[in-house]
Amino acid sequence: MFPYQVDQEISLRLPDQVGDARHLYQLVNNSRTTIARWLPWANSMRSVKSEQQFLTQALAHYRAGDSVNLLIIYRDHIAGMISFNSFDVNQKQGEMGYWLGNQYTGNGIVHRAVLSICQIGFYNYHLNQIHIKAVVDNDRSNQVAKRAGFHLNQVIQNGILINGVGYQTNDWIMKKVK
């Protein structure tokens, strides 16, 4: 299943915890202010070693079938990550997340990656629903969900904690067309 070719510019692949950690850390570090504004984990990613630890844990979760974290490769460069952060096997649903380094935004990369991972979720993981949770004020992430065909399911009060502050979160949903 992986690597997965999205189009001529983009592919999705599993990370190599040793080989990719340095580049991912640099990407996070260079984009930290933007990423940390919306994603609580970004401020705790403070070294190549912490990135390696995350990737090791992510690959263990993948092997256990609990989640899948994929690198977004754009024109042969790591541009960010997209993931199913969790699966609810009983309800046949997954929760998606994504981020890009600042220098890669504005190229439709996340949009194309989201559409592709939805196909993976529906047809390879047999999901019936996929959720994206985005802070209400995160216009870019909310636009990605909307353009990809997700529908606003609900607004969750204190849906995500960032630096100890609870933020309203939009819960976007896409259902498998039968």
UniProtKB/TrEMBL annotation:
Instruction: Give a GO cellular-component term.
Output: cytoplasm
Keyword vocabulary terms for this entry: Transferase
Q: Where is the N-acetyltransferase domain?
A: 12-151
Q: Which InterPro entries match?
A: Acyl_CoA_acyltransferase, GNAT_dom, Ribosomal_N-acetyltransferase
Question: Record's superkingdom?
Answer: Bacteria
GO molecular function terms listed in the Swiss-Prot or TrEMBL record: protein N-terminal-serine acetyltransferase activity; protein-N-terminal-alanine acetyltransferase activity
Q: Which PANTHER family match?
A: RIBOSOMAL-PROTEIN-SERINE ACETYLTRANSFERASE (PTHR43441:SF11)
Q: What is this protein called?
A: Ribosomal-protein-L7p-serine acetyltransferase
Q: Which organism does this record belong to? A: Fructilactobacillus fructivorans
